[in-house]
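Field log, afternoon session.

UNIT: design team B
ACTIVITY: writing a sequence onto a fixed backbone
BACKBONE:
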């Protein structure tokens, strides 16, 4: 078995990455790397759970720019997961979902459903305004989160650190089968 992959004891015995190497992409036309609270929160939560944010990027609310950055990260061998923050709302410049969703080989609708369920406890019916989603692109799980620090923390802490190592192991299991 490859280093960094462990088998978890469940009824399917699927691989799970011991350390998740993540790229964090903040989508914003108003933030800078100095005030990227959402990206900082993702990186800190990952580190608290023994994972790594090995790449960080800040990109403006532009569909082509988002597509380019996410594509670059999913093609990297040292990236197991991509997390974007920002651009999931309903304003004209919220284009993260449009930039990423068409690349999904497999969509993971349960992520958005669970995120909105958990968010409801905090923001009530305003949760309908988020289009947070996830999917697999070229064997790499990609999560698209809202831009608020509270939403980022909720999604990363309650869902991503729990499921992304497993999803990344499943998405790349062909590389590990028979190892």
């Amino acid at each position: 078995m490859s280093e960094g992959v462990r088998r978890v004891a469940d009824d399917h015995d699927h691989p799970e990455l011991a350390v998740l190497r993540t790229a964090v992409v903040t989508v914003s036309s108003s933030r800078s790397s100095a005030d990227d609270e959402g990206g900082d929160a993702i990186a800190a939560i990952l580190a608290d759970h023994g994972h790594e944010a090995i790449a960080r990027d800040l990109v403006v609310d532009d569909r082509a720019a988002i597509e380019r950055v996410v594509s670059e990260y999913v093609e990297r061998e040292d990236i197991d997961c991509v997390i974007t923050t920002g651009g999931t709302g309903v304003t004209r410049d919220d284009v993260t979902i449009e930039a990423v969703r068409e690349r999904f080989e497999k969509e993971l609708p349960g992520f958005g459903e669970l995120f909105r369920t958990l968010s409801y406890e905090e923001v009530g019916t305003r949760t309908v305004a988020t289009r947070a989603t996830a999917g697999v692109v070229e064997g790499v799980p990609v999560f698209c989160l809202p831009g608020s620090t509270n939403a980022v923390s909720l999604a990363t802490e309650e869902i991503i650190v729990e499921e992304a190592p497993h999803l990344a192991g499943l998405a790349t299991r062909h590389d590990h089968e028979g190892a």
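LOG NOTE: The chain has one domain: 5-173.
NEXT ACTIVITY: expression trials, pending approval
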